[in-house]
Amino acid sequence: MEFKDYYQVLGVDPQADAKAIKTAYRKLARTYHPDVNPDPGAEDKFKEVAEAYEVLKDTERRAEYDELRRYGGARPGEGFEPPPGWESNAYGAYNGRFSEEDFSEFFSSIFGGGFRQAQGSQTSGAGMRGQDIEIEVPIFLEETVQEISKPVSYRIPVSVDGQLQYEHKTLNVKIPVGISEGERIRLKGQGTPGHGSAPAGDLYLHVRLVPHPLFDVEGHNLVITVPVAPWEAALGARVVVPTLEGKINLTIKPHSQSGQRLRVKERGLHGKSGRGDLYAVLKVVMPDYHNDKTDELWQQLSREARFDPRAEWER
Amino acid sequence: MELQVSYQELCEYDEIDEAVVLRVVEYNIAAPVTGRDVASWHFRTTDVSWIHKALRLRRDLDIDWIAVATIIDLLKQQQSLAEENRRLRQQLRRFFSE
């Protein structure tokens, strides 16, 4: 086991006073707090910083740590073991920031007993509720228009004889109709087991709608880009357009513009206040193929139409 | 499976102090979706998640409610803008040829 230099973790001098330690902690906590920093390594860094602060902010605990540090823990490159018969007396001042799994092996080997007793005293011997777990669940748009059951697999951190292990779990979860991006489904008691007789934490499923190859989501409305030929935009047409539940015929009026949005009522996603709409956005596409005849026809059209698409620039 | 949580459950099951629930509503960190009087309030589970986030920030950063509410507000804005940005980029990709 490696000795942890908590002063180095917080970037303070071993002689630093309580105020300097608090300032250093707050600065680092602000940077690495996992609720504001999405970087994958931020949570581990925050735990390291918080663990250091947990020890150094408490006078009794800091004194014990300093004693161990003097005992030889700070020798670089050598493994660390607490002195034989070592037992911490610093029981108090634990504020419930962590569960047992969050502490390093180093911390537990020094303050383990004291930490557990402090926990017990806080919760009247009932132990501490297990931690909540949050996982992202990808949902296809097609799955939001009817109730489905979806298998969800995740890992639960459990402490077995002081060692952190992971238990794999799979649940079959009913996904309600009309679930939307960012919503969270709570499954009570499916998180980390509680300590002692305390209840388990919860499992939160964070819904992420899988990007669809054809449809974009705007609230409860869907948007589909519909490619049309120039003559379809000019003369009008009826085109077949896919929806989440089969195809429909869409009427394009004569003299339509590229970028125009056509509304198809109640073909969007289900919402609390009814069903959203489908918007078809027209995209005029030039044909790939051309020959002398088509070029001649375009020239003829050009002469007849007398159209300057950049007329606005001249104003 | 839950999409909403009652005020009572939030206080008892989630072990959140009644005064804290009133604070998070007062500072608009979470808003009840139903219920006229406090006892009949219900919150979306998404908001429950924001409440827990707010409590962690308040405890870990040792900051007051105004600071917590400001951070939560900015985090919500950032999340919403990131989502809008992703959606608009996707629409642009569909509309314009490379």
From TrEMBL, chain A:
Q: Which SMART domains match?
A: DnaJ (SM00271)
Report whether RNA-binding shows up as a keyword of the record.
no
Keyword terms, alphabetized: Chaperone, Cytoplasm, DNA-binding
**Domain J: residue ranges:** 5-69
- Which molecular function term from Gene Ontology is one that the record holds? DNA binding
Stored SUPFAM superfamilies: Chaperone J-domain, HSP40/DnaJ peptide-binding domain
* Record's keyword annotation contains Cytoplasm: yes
Q: Which CDD domains match?
A: DnaJ, DnaJ_C
- Pfam family name, one: DnaJ_C
Name the GO terms of the biological process aspect.
protein refolding
Name the InterPro entries for this protein: DnaJ_C, DnaJ_domain, DnaJ_domain_CS, HSP40/DnaJ_pept-bd, J_dom_sf
Which cellular component terms (GO) are annotated to the entry? cytoplasm
Return the PANTHER family for the record.
Answer: DNAJ HOMOLOG 1, MITOCHONDRIAL-RELATED (PTHR43096:SF52)
Protein known as: DnaJ domain-containing protein
Q: What's the source species for this entry?
A: Pseudohalioglobus sediminis
